[in-house]
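Figure 3 (text version): structure tokens given as input.
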């Protein structure tokens, strides 16, 4: 009969117990991992953590709904898969969108807020018509002039949609038009004559001069028109802090020109 020294037997038993504990811990961690995976799968499938409400504010002309659909931001999608940053980046590609924000509100709501550009003036080009926003960004191209917005009568390229027009005179004209109230902007025209910008607003010829400070010039013109100048007067807003009114007949009728 073989006998084992007690010390060696205790050592062997300790090794067996250590291996048993190691196998037990490994089994427990495996079960915990399986349980976590199951919990995540269950959460993804649970109806109370899926998109139930999509709130869109400020959208009118922009293609917010199609963009959200393209990103699969739809009712029923697991809300954990919604990425607000991707929504904002996609919306920024729409020319009409000046700024956009997206917020995920757990457990079931996606909120999208859009700040859209406002149309300011139509620019006639060799390729048709381009609608410019009040910041000089091209937002639409069309074969025919659309809404009753001012007309920019300058020789220019169409410009890239979603980008500010590269021509400083075109940009200034769009910003000036965007600064006019709708009651004055409907029949306004902006053109170049005598090497400077001119406009016709509410029946008055207006000297705008160089393409600087267009917003201030629009505000100055509105203030002058509130004083009801004599019909046929020429209004000068080259220096918007010091606008001037010239009586009828002071200037020859300025004709649009195509000089650079």
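Below: residues designed for each position.
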């Amino acid at each position: 009969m073989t006998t084992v020294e007690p010390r060696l037997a205790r050592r062997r038993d300790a090794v067996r117990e250590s291996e048993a504990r190691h196998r037990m811990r490994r089994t427990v961690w495996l079960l915990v991992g399986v349980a976590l995976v199951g919990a995540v799968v269950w959460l993804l499938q649970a109806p109370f953590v899926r998109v139930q409400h999509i709130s869109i504010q400020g959208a009118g002309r922009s293609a917010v709904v199609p963009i959200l659909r393209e990103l699969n931001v739809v009712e029923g999608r697991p809300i954990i898969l919604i990425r607000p940053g991707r929504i904002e980046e996609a919306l920024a590609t729409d020319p009409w969108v000046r700024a956009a924000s997206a917020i995920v509100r757990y457990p079931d709501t996606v909120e999208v807020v859009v700040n859209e550009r406002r149309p300011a003036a139509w620019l006639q080009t060799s390729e048709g018509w381009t609608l410019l926003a009040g910041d000089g960004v091209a937002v639409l191209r069309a074969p025919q002039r659309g809404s009753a917005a001012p007309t920019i009568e300058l020789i220019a390229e169409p410009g890239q949609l979603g980008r500010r027009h590269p021509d400083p005179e075109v940009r200034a004209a769009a910003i000036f038009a965007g600064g006019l109230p709708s009651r004055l902007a409907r029949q306004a025209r902006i053109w170049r004559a005598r090497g400077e910008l001119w406009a016709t607003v509410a029946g008055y010829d207006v000297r705008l001069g160089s393409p600087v400070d267009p917003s201030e010039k629009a505000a100055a013109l509105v203030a002058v028109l509130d004083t009801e100048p004599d019909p046929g007067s020429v209004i000068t807003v080259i220096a918007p802090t010091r606008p001037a009114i010239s009586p009828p007949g002071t200037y020859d009728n300025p004709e649009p020109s195509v000089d650079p």
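The first strand starts at residue 53 and ends at 57.
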